[in-house]
Design a protein that fits this description.
The complex is a heterodimer of chains A (about 290) and B (about 190). Chain A is an alpha+beta fold and about 290 residues long. Among the domains of chain A are: about 120 residues, Rod shape-determining protein MreC, domain 1 (Thrombin, subunit H, Beta Barrel); about 80 residues, Beta Barrel (Thrombin, subunit H), CATH 2.40.10. In chain A, about 35% of the residues lie in helices and about 30% in strands. Chain A has 3 helices and 12 strands; from the N terminus they run H-H-H-E-E-E-E-E-E-E-E-E-E-E-E. In chain A, strand 6 and strand 7 form a beta hairpin. The termini of chain A are far apart. By secondary structure, chain B is mainly alpha-helical. In chain B, helix 3 packs antiparallel against helix 4. The radius of gyration of chain B is 17 Å and the shape is globular. The chains are: A alpha+beta (about 290), B mainly alpha (about 190). At the A-B interface, helix 1, helix 2 and strand 1 of A face helix 2, helix 4, helix 5, helix 6 and helix 7 of B.
């Protein structure tokens, strides 16, 4: 073998080695390996610092540019908040009523959730994968597949967990599908990402809707709870336009997500609290 | 014969007769800083959905200054750290960065190192190769969401132009650092 052949062989060997590494580490892992864990743990405060720095700089300039708009927005938000507060008490009332009625019917109590706040400390710098890194890990009780939300809706789920940080796979990542529901008409479908529009990468779409499905622009799409990863009833987004799929058989719709995936700062991890045993066997009390 | 082979392997890893451990430490350090900045600070300043891959620019600039053997090592180290921090699997960016570095290293034999247009053009073309490798790897392992031509027009080309311009800022830094023997402090 002369030197050139040897070089080529060496490079080919390296490529095959790396390809098999991708194959073996790309699937079937929920936790990082020890070495990765160590690096992630060490780096998460540094990432947090730079993320805060970026955020502060960004909001500073944004604040100067948008001062007038922010004032205006503040005014409208205050009015909205007052209206919402009213709604909140109504909801509380309804929740209590719902609880009572459920108790009467001896319905199984729905699983309760608590929210664990986390900060976004980094996001995937390549445009190929839609993941973010948050500053909570298994030390805080985070586990793989836990849902991640913001106050406006569903963000995604936890993919990898390290000690003090975890990676979250967002809804806009191409590697996932979420089972969804149109809130108004209860039409079920699947959430996928909009294909073929890399510049519209913030948009989602709902596919596999039957041709007679009752869906129209403006409808709210929520998670259906099927599949077990996401709890039921989390807002995914609002329908922008409805159309036929590529074969003209099924309907599909483009959705504007409720969450702005490009500007995530704080998120909540949904931690499931198993329902209490005693509450389940309530016999309706006779009048 | 055995001794001979051992010596060869050793020389390959040390990449020459001089031991350049500090070189690798410095590269690891720079890689981590670039990735942290890119993943946290830069994401707030995205230009039309494109985040520049500063790490690729670093790998290509260094590969351009050094031979392809050392370039491959730089590519592997940088890619590995990127995989650990953000990658979907180990070996993913590693493979793409290694091939990018190899090409840049080979190109540096043919192109004059002391003029900036050479590395700028290299970065421009290597960006395409890097992105195409990742495009097909993603397609193979997880499935792609857009066709090749759309990606070429909407992602690869803007990114390549972005990198082309950014190299103008970064290459002189690496060139100066190489000349001042920044990467080998023990040989000053």
């Amino acid at each position: 073998m002369n030197q050139t052949t040897r070089k080529v062989m060496g490079i080919l060997g390296l490529i095959i080695l790396l390809l098999s590494l991708i194959f073996f580490t790309g699937k079937f892992r929920s936790r990082y390996t020890f070495a990765e864990d160590l690096i992630m743990t060490g780096l998460s405060p540094v990432q947090g610092f730079f993320s805060q720095l970026g955020l502060k700089t960004f909001t500073f300039f944004q604040g100067i540019v948008d001062y007038e708009r922010v004032l205006e927005e503040n005014k409208t938000l205050k009015t909205q908040l007052a209206a919402r507060e009213n709604l909140y008490y109504q909801l509380l009332e309804l929740q209590k009523e719902n609880y009572r009625l459920r108790e009467m019917l001896a319905f199984k109590e729905r699983t309760e959730y608590s929210l664990l706040p986390a900060e976004v400390i980094a996001r995937d710098p390549s445009h190929w994968f839609e993941t973010i890194t948050i500053n909570k890990g298994y030390a805080d009780g985070v586990e793989k597949d836990m849902a991640v939300v913001t106050s406006s809706g569903l963000v995604g789920n936890v993919m990898f967990v390290s000690r003090n940080s975890s990676q979250v796979l967002m809804l806009t990542d191409s590697r996932r599908a979420v089972s969804a529901l149109v809130q108004r008409s209860r039409e079920p479908g699947f959430i996928g990402i909009v294909e073929g529009y890399p510049e519209k990468k913030g948009h989602l779409r709902i596919i596999n809707l039957p041709p007679e499905a009752n869906i129209q622009p403006g409808d709210t799409v929520i998670s259906s709870g099927l599949g077990g990863v996401f709890p039921k009833g989390l807002v995914i987004g609002h329908v922008l336009e409805v159309g036929k799929d590529q074969y003209g058989l099924l309907q599909q719709a483009i959705i504007i997500p409720a969450v702005n995936f490009n500007r995530l700062e704080e998120v909540f991890i949904v931690v499931e609290i198993p329902p209490e045993k005693e509450g389940q066997e309530v016999v309706p009390s006779g009048e | 014969m055995k001794f001979h082979l051992k010596k060869k392997v050793k020389r390959w890893f040390l990449l020459g007769n001089k031991i350049h451990f500090t070189l690798y430490l410095i590269i690891i350090f720079i890689t981590i800083i670039i990735l942290v900045i890119q993943g946290s600070l830069l994401t707030f300043f995205i230009v039309s959905g494109i985040i520049p891959d500063l790490l690729l620019i670093m790998v290509v600039c260094l590969a351009f200054l050094w031979s392809e053997k050392r370039a491959i090592m730089v590519g592997i180290i940088a890619g590995f750290i990127q995989d650990v921090l953000f990658g979907p699997a180990i070996g993913f960016f590693c493979l793409a960065k290694m091939i990018a570095a190899l090409l840049a290293g080979l190109a540096s034999h043919e192109i004059y190192r002391d003029q900036i247009i050479g590395p700028m053009l290299t970065v421009f073309f290597v960006t395409f190769v890097h992105e195409i490798i990742i495009f097909y790897l993603t397609g193979f392992f997880w499935g792609n969401t857009f066709t090749f031509y759309v990606a070429l027009e909407k992602l690869f080309l803007p990114k390549a132009i972005y990198h082309f311009v950014l190299t103008m800022l970064f290459y002189p830094l690496f060139y100066r650092a190489e000349q001042k023997k920044f990467f080998y402090p023990s040989f000053k």
